[in-house]
Each structure stands twice: as structure tokens, then as C-alpha cells.
## 1
Amino acid sequence: MIRFTLIAALVSVVFFQILGEKVPVNEGAMGDGLFFREVAGSFLEKIEGGSYNVIQMQRVMPFAFVNVMFGVFEIVKSYDNLIRGMLVLHFLFLGLGVYWYFALATKLRLGDSLSILGFVLLFVNFAVLKDPWYNPFSTDLPTLMLAIGQANYFIKINRQKLFLVSIVAGFVWPTMMLTGLLLLFLPSEQLLFYPEERPKSFFPVITSLFLLVFLGLLGMFTGRFFQEGFWNVALHIGSILSLVLFVLGMMVRNPIDWSKSYELMIKKTKSQKMGRLLGIFMVFVLVIFLLSGNNATVQPVGLFLGFVKDTLRFPGDFLVGHFMFFGFMIPLSLVFFPRMVKEAAKLGMGMTVVGILIFVFALHPESRLLLAFFPFMVVLLLKAVRRYRIVNKDLIVASVVNVSVSLFWLPLNVPGMEEALGLGSKEVLEMFPAQRYWMHFGHMMSFEVFLAGGGIFMVLVFLAWKGKMRYKREEYVRGRSVAAKI
């Protein structure tokens, strides 16, 4: 009954969104969506001519599928029909993701409370309830749903299906094939932890100093220290310091004994498996390269500069951006970070390396980079809070927060939105009304949205920490009561 209620509520919201508003410019597409719409309309005609580069080839699968289906059923490839085709495909992916999630919940033996919590964190957010239906020409929802499939088959230890899902996902998002191979071939033995508290070490401090120097040099190389306005430079310096302190804090809270775990990994790693990992990955890269063409347009330096230009705008903007995109999951992850690391280590080196990738990509404020990893974060959190008592109040708070932050109920196409998105300049996109959409993207949000979102984020971190402390106090009181009876 609980599962039926959750699915019914989700489907109701989704149908509301399917029939609702779409991107008001370019007949329903903007940004990368213009390219993806072209793929959906002419994939079979252009693939033979090698019209897509290696990066584009790793994201074309959903749109190529729509193109093939339209060709099979002889449907006219008008813009309106292509939008409908993408909406149907997104709905099918969503159904598959829900099926995989409940299969995963059954494997993990989650109770009703944890199943509801996981469902809310995974499906009640901007990434599921609003963005794919407003901007249908994107790979975001298929990426998230296929990542749920990867997490499901990894927990179930179903290697064949994990491999098949990873192959498909490799043509939806660039990192997903690598994620699947890491989970398949790296040792599954549990890593080693410190027996008590982490011993004092200079390693986190030294690493943080190297990171500080690297970010400083990067800021000079990209000209961020020489931009106009004292306030912009001050914000950039504050962003660097906050990022370094964040990394230092996470390293200090790390419970894994890396020196002993490294020795264990070397001992347990089999050269045959590593050869398969590298071999399969190289074959996949070769296939992508052979299918692609026009790779002269790929500029590695330009890609790197494009990757870093939107970072370090505001102090901690990556946390605020991820919170706006994914909801309460981000404050909970901060509070339960050490336990999530432990759970990743218990699942083996593959999950631990994926956890390191999550941490690295999380430092960038564009939340779409985390979509391929988000279900693994939810799995680790659910395993981390399994011993905690989740009460109805906790579920209500999580649900209200995620529904509110998703803003699925908020109309976006207000007067001025079409003009703002049509102009597309950075300055215009940081002003109202464009922020009604871009406030969920950390690399595009305005300073005012950052301040408001940051304030809410800190309140939720405090609430999550209080909930954790409440459980410990209750556990302490119960322990004293049992001792008194004895």
C-alpha cells in the first residue's frame, strides 16, 4: 500500500508537469537541447557521416532511440512531436527507475520508514519533478534512472546486468561506463578502519596546502584574481578558502586507514581482473572513437577552462547549488559523512573509488555532474542511517523540504522569461525572472539566491545534526535504563 501511494503521488505530479509549461524559446529547446533535438530529428541520416564528436557520442542514446522509433512508426519529426517523444521516453525511464529502486529497497531489506525516505530523497527533487519536463531535450533523467539500475545490480551482485546497464549508460553520460567497470572489477573486500579515533597526521594539512596553491595558481592563470571589482576578487578568495577548509574537514573526518587498506588492495587485486577492466574500457573508447567524427572541434584546454570557469564564484556555492538541485540529501550527507564513508568501504574498493569520484565532482557547483552518482549517495546514506530510528516527523520534514525546494508547483514562464532566456548573457541570466529556472544550478545562480539558499541550507544542516544527536541521547537513556534494571 505504501509503495502504491508513493508511485501514485509521483505519477500525479509527473502528469501535471508533462501537460505543463516548456522552455519558452526556440520552440522548446535551449543550450545543449538544440543539439539534442537535432540528434532526435536526424540521427540516422548524420551518424554515417561522422557528424558527432567523442563527447557528443557519449550522450546521444536517448535521442537516437527517439529518432529510430519515429522512423519505424513513420511519425513526422516536427518539433512538437519530438517533444512528445522525449516526454514519453522520460516517463518510461522514470518507470524503470522506480522499479529498480524498489528492487534495491527489497535487497537492502529496508523497512517502511527507510523506503519512504529513500524514495523522497531520490525522486522528490528538481532533477525529477521539474527539469526534465520543462526542458525535455536533456540526458539528465535517463542518466539518473540508469544510475539507479547500476546501484541496484551492484548491490544484488548481478554482474551481467550491471555490465549491460553500464554499456547502455555509457552512451548517455561519459562517466557511467567507467563507474560500472570500477564496481565490476575492483576488489570487493572491505577496507580497514581506524580502531578508535583517527590518529594525528600532517597528511590532510599538507594536501590542503597543495590544493590551496593549485587553486591560487589556477585563479591567476584564468585571470580570476585580475577581474574587475574588489567584491568579485574577494568572493573568489573566500571561495578558495572555503573549499580548502571543506576538503580539510572531510579528510579529517575520514575513518578509513588508507595505508593498511592500500596494502590490502594490492594483495587482493588480481592482474587478470585489472587487465579486463582496462581492456574493456579501451575497447569502449575505441568504439566511441570509431563511431564519432569531427573530433577536431574537441579542444581539451577549452573544455578544462570551461569546466573551471564556473567554479569558486561564491564561498560554498557547490553545496548550496547541490542542495537546490537535490534537496535534503545534501545536508544529510554532510552530517552523516563519516558513516557514509564507512558504508562505502564495507562495499569494497570499487564503491570506495566511486565515492572518491563523487567527492571530486561534488566540488563543482553544476549539479548535473552528480546525476550519475546520486543513487549511490542515497544507498550509502540509507545504509548509514539504518541503525537510527526514523520517525514520522523526520519523513514529513524531508518530504516538505524536498517538495518546497523542487519548486515543481512554481510556474516558470512568467512575463520576461522568454526575453531573458533568449538573450542568454551571463548578466541577464543572473537577474529575475531567469533565476526562477537557473536558481537550481549552482554555476548560474545569482548572489541573492546563493545567500537565501545558503541560509536555508545551514538551517537544514543544523536540523539534521539535531536529529542525529536526538537519537544518540535516546540510545544513551535506554542504555542507562537497561543498566539500572540489571
Note: DSSP finds 26 helices and no strands in the chain.
## 2
Amino acid sequence: MRKIIVLLLIFTCTFAGCKQPDPYLNYVSEVRQEIYEGTADSAKITAVYGFCETPYLNDGKTGDIIYGLTFRLHIVPDETKRVIKFTNGDREYSAPFILDEITSEYRATVEIKADMEKEFAAALIIGDTTVPVVFRSIVPDKCITYETALKALENKQSALLNSYMKDGNFSAEIYMRVFVKDGAPYWYIGIAAGNDRLKALLIDGVSGELLAVRDII
């Protein structure tokens, strides 16, 4: 009976088609898949959703993954306390904006794993004042997903990816970030092999065509 079941499974996968998991997905240590923009009190706020390994290191290995939404407030630094709040599903999230001393940019990060909408409402609390903000995605609907972008890379750069294989294992980690320029989406893909070695690739966000490749050391 057991042999019959095995044969049936083989037959089903061969002739009906079994979708195999993408082996390289396990080596993706960063994805920025959605970009939002909003305005509050004449100040521009951007937000990026995705996941990232923690700690974030170019060591050629994928660490623990954390999903999050990171807000950036573009203002001249001052002493006013600011907090971002929003609701997703039945849960409310909030985070204070903290000044990055290196970039002089305010950031607030909320740990969240969810199916993010293309638009969502939030509130920016400035001292004792609450200002409503509507965040809208600037990533076009026609943009391919990071999974599709990765599959496109595999199809067009299989020799490159195979060059990182050692003893049957992929000896690098993959960074993927969507961005939009002049209304057109693109995927940046970085292959990090450790010791700050990085192969950077640019892929068209609609067609999946490879546009550029360069080494960054």
C-alpha cells in the first residue's frame, strides 16, 4: 500500500505539476517591498515596509528575520516629541521618532507582520497635538513582487548564483529593495558574501529584465 501511495505522488508531481519552493528564498535576509508617502503639518513622512535580519550584518549568512514598518520624518531637528500611531486589523501600533545622529533624520520603527494595504491612515502626535496622516504607496500596482524578481534573477543569472554554491549550499545572503524613479519601479538586489563583499544588480520592476551589475567592495 505504501508503494502505491509513493507511486501516486510521483505520478501527480510529474504529470500534474508540483510547485517546488524557491531554494533562494531561504537566503533572503532583507526585503523592502512597499514605500509610502504622507504629509503632516507641512512635513513629509515616508515609510518602508518589509523585513530584515537582526543583527544586520554582511556575513554571508541569514539571521533571524523581523518584519517592520519604518517611518522617516523629514524636518529640521528640534526638541519636540513626536509619535506615530496607526491601526492594522484590531491592533493599534505606535512608536516615537528618534533622531539618527549620523543622518540627522527622525525615524520610528514598528514591528509588524501583515498584508499591508496600498493606503492607510495614521496619526502624528506632535507634543499635545494630533495631526491625521494618510499614507499612500508610491509603488505601482504593475510592479512585480520580490519573489518574482528573485525568480527573474535566477533565470537570467543562474551562473552567477551557482558561483556562490559551496558543498551544495548557497554561501551568501540576498538583499532586495524596491524603489521608484520617475514613476517607474525597480528592484535592487544585493548578493552579500561576507566581509563587506557585495554584488549589486538592478532589475526592471515590471519586466524583470536585468539592467545593471556591479561589484561593491
Note: Residues 47 and 71 are 4 Å apart (CA to CA).
## 3
Amino acid sequence: MDAPAAYIWWVYKQRISKKEIETMKKNMKKVPIIQSKANIYHIKEEIEADKLLSKIHETKK
């Protein structure tokens, strides 16, 4: 499915050039890579937060 040649928002209509469409397609191909990196980052942050909370819990005892 090809991207539309115009962006329509109610009455306002803006033309999109072929170069802009190609840039959008190129960026959309990067989404899965960025999402996987974000997931890895969040997992690491969760592990670090658990370690920090366990240290806090141990010092209170």
C-alpha cells in the first residue's frame, strides 16, 4: 500500500512530495529497531531499580 499523496485534515489539504514520502518510508523502517533498543533499555532500568530497592530494603532491617 502506497502512502497518500496528500495529507488531509478537515478542510486543510497539504501536498506531500515524493521525497518526503520516501523519507517517511525510510523512517518507518527504523521503528522496529528503535523499539527493540527501547525495550532493552527499559529491561536494564527495571533490573537496576530492583537492585536499588533491594539495597534500600536491606539497610532498613
Note: Helices lie at 18-60.
